[in-house]
Amino acid sequence: MAQLWGGRFTKETDKQVYDFNASISFDKRLYRQDIAGSKAHVTMLAAAGILTEEEAEKIRTGLDGILKDVENGSLVITDKYEDIHSFVEANLIDRIGDTGKKLHTGRSRNDQVALDMKLYVRDEIEQIDECVYELLRVIHHIMEDNIHTYMPGFTHMQKAQPVTLAHHMGAYFEMFRRDRGRLADIKARMNTCPLGSCALAGTTYPLDRNLTASLLGFDGPTFNSMDSVSDRDYLIELLSALSTVMMHLSRISEEVIIWNSDEYRFIELDDAYSTGSSIMPQKKNPDIAELVRGKTGRVYGALISMLTLMKGIPLAYNKDMQEDKEMTFDAIDTVKNCLTLFAGMLATAKFNDKKMEQSAKNGFTNATDLADYLVAKGVPFRDAHGISGRLVLYCIDKGCALDDLSIEEFKKFSDVIEDDIFEAIAMTTCVEKRNTIGAPGPDVMKQVIKANKDYLEI
Ligand code: ARG
Fold first, then answer.
1. Nearest 5°: phi and psi at 284?
2. What pLDDT, on the 0 to 100 scale, is given for residue 301?
3. Does the C-beta of 110 come closer than 6 Å to ligand 1?
4. Of 110, 119, 323, which is best to mutate to test ligand 1, by the most ligand atoms within 8 angstroms of its C-beta?
5. Which of 37, 54, 114, 201 could covalently link to 194 via disulfide, CB atoms 3.0 to 4.6 Å apart?
6. Contact 351/267 with Cβ under 8 angstroms?
7. Which of 115, 343, 350 has its CA nearest to residue 221?
8. Can 248 be counted among the known catalytic residues?
9. Does the pLDDT of residue 9 top 90, yes or no?
């Protein structure tokens, strides 16, 4: 047991209490941030005349040595220490002696851990953003290749109107683009430095908080030391943004699972991204999509846990807050993994354009266009709707598509129908006439794809 306190205690900590209290098993992943924060802190202490330049240099060198040895594996972070802060400080003292004992001047673990988590989250936001960006590139390529790939668009899971695969995928492009926006907002809002808040009430040392903030790439110091050590809003915001990412991933996973089913066969997943059954030899399962859909619950769980964790905490730091880490780490790991795997699965999937087009044709997705055709011939829309509906019923009985009817059959329902009906309700016409921005028509789709390309800077 190696802890930073003990002076006012006359007994050893009970072993179970020690283990229950310790956070090293999970906060060890903050070693880089902890060391970077400590280096900035001593640089500031020297600039403020609280340490000498020689002392600061000695401490920085010691900290660099610890970092190097942890990274090359020669120094292992073990459970012997209570937390990552104790590990770094104890190792520093081992290496450089008494000067190491000056590191914690004008600092508390409360502002230290607040800093470490902010630094960690700031880095991770960048990495998550990169993963979302890569997925957007995959979606963009599918869009570029499928401006003329017709498929049914659904409402209520019923075939509704024809769209294209580019258009369908474009909806997800919008979702994931918004996710990136949310991540950027969080990063901008959280970028203030808590270091120097100390335990809760600042310190009597003449710290230069602006200097530490700028050394660590923050926009400036936080303005209230009690809030600084107990603010976890940015974690709640992050988990909310990550929950939204997962919700989007889960929706598109659901599409993939449906499209991959025998009944649809819109998509063929690559063997490398599918799994088999131990008993049924014919199976090729979309396990990645199912797991992504399933893991969404973990990330939602983290958000709800974090909100619940914070709701009863009076100012300022309370130990409950140590619980913020495992769930945040798990959510971040989960989201990065899911984004990467999903992007790989989508990039290697093959779309069955014939099946998709056939499905759109069989689903009377041109029934609205038939009604619009009648309107153009002078029939009021409500009547046109009725005629088109009766024609659909006729086709259902006959087991055919609207396009398969003869002109004589059409005329039995309305004598304004002429030979131009076939072109008017053809799949190509139905899609190509929808040319207002945001619709699936190829001209506007090309404009959107160009705008997306500019956004991606490719
Ligand atoms: N392990 C603690 C946490 O994660 C670090 C801060 C401890 N501060 C304290 N006063 N016990 O929150």
1. -140, 100
2. 98
3. yes
4. 110
5. 114
6. yes
7. 115
8. no
9. no
Phi-psi region for residue 288, left (φ > 0), alpha (ψ -120 to 50) or beta? alpha
CA 122 to ligand 1 center in whole angstroms: 20
Say what the pLDDT of residue 12 is.
86
**pLDDT tens-digit map of 279-290:** 777 777 999 999
Ligand 1 centre distance from Cα of residue 304 (Å): 22
In the prediction, which pLDDT does 1 show? 64
Which residue owns the Cα nearest ligand 1 atom 12? 322
Residue-wise pLDDT tens digits, 248-296: 999 999 999 999 999 999 999 999 998 877 777 777 799 999 999 999 9
Decide the pairing of beta strands 267-268 and 158-164. Answer: unpaired
Provide the token pair at 250.
Answer: 């889960």
In sequence order, the 6+-apart residues with CB closer than 8 A to the CB of 86 are 2, 3, 4, 24
Instruction: Encode burial over 183-219: b for 16+ CB neighbours within 10 A, e otherwise.
Output: beebbeebbbbbbbbbbbebbeeebbbebbbbbbebe
CA of 151 to the centre of ligand 1 (A): 55
Structure-derived torsion over alpha carbons of residues 6, 24, 69, 330, reported in degrees to the nearest 10? -160
Q: Which amino acid is at 111?
A: D
